[in-house]
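Input record (one chain):
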Amino acid sequence: MLRMTLAAFAAAAAAFAVGAPVASAAVTNQDLSATRADGMITFSYKVPAGLPSAVLVDFNHDGVSDYAISAAIDAQDGNSALGFATFGSTSACQQYWGYDESDAPGDVPITVTSAGDEDVVTLSTDDDRLRTAFEAKAVSFGGDDGEDFCPPVADLDTMQVRTGMSDVSPFDFTAVPPAAPANLKALAGDGQVELSWDAVKDADTYNVFVDGVQVHWYYNGTVFTVDGLENGRAYSFQVEARNMDGTSVRSAAVVATPQAPVVNPPVQRVTPTTPTTPQPPANPRDTDGDGISNDWLINGKPALAPAKPKVGQVTGKSITVKLPKAPKGSKLAVYVGTGNGKFSKAKGKLNKKGELTVKGLKKNTTYEVKVVKVNQAGKQSAASNSLKVKTKNK
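The corresponding structure, as predicted from the sequence alone:
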């Protein structure tokens, strides 16, 4: 892994001004592709071998880059330095490396693969700012005269490249919740109703409602039996789909009435089963049924949830998550679930970077991670939106 400081990057830029000629004499646009899968946005492009490069993003469609990710010079396979650039760009000098008043540099997986006299660069990030519509382009830069580098900006720890935001490609990764389940059917039985519906594209799980009350969370099938119902009473049923982008509207309601079986003479004594009422979550303060207590109440409602955590390093047996900053007088707790709607508290201590590593996980398995705030009395706020992460297969 190669990690370059700003000083090293500047030295490399200076080397272009006095060193041997390179394949590109100035800023060159490169073909750029982008895809989204499992919550990650992946950019891919090719550059002449050994040249520094960057992806420039224009959110406002005004011809000025608002955000950038850069690959380090002579980067090797693995992680390389990256910079978020949302300050100081102009139409002629686009910022490509460094940080501004609110966005500090970090690491994203940057893979550089040699392909003869070219490098294939792949940048992957789960930054929520990219979950929208934007224009972007990939550029490589370098030369023996340094003219592609803009003059330093006073009081701004960054570097810039002399180029405009022309020849960009449009991308749209706006988060879209799944559609509502269709073709919901209800088959009544003795004290129960079997529900079935069509699978929804891009849905991960489903929530089930009876008479407007949620009775099951994060169900991962399309056939579900609601039991413990009263025979002879009409019930209304609905289902909603969910994934990491959100929850759909509920399906159209269907009505079904459970009935006891008809017994023809001679009548035989049948011991009826005792209907059971659909149970609320085991913890009355568990507002969403995920097994996480939300008993830190403010005006009778759970305290606001913290921001969603971000994924760090992922291996076959561990996940490192980057946590938001805990408010004064509180701390953060991490919970991990495996998609069955129940979460357990993760062990471990935060490192100096505000990261916690969850160990002892299964390979090639999808986990969900949530964060809660914990006050000085040990009570917990509402849980954050879940972060979905899949461990590696080796």
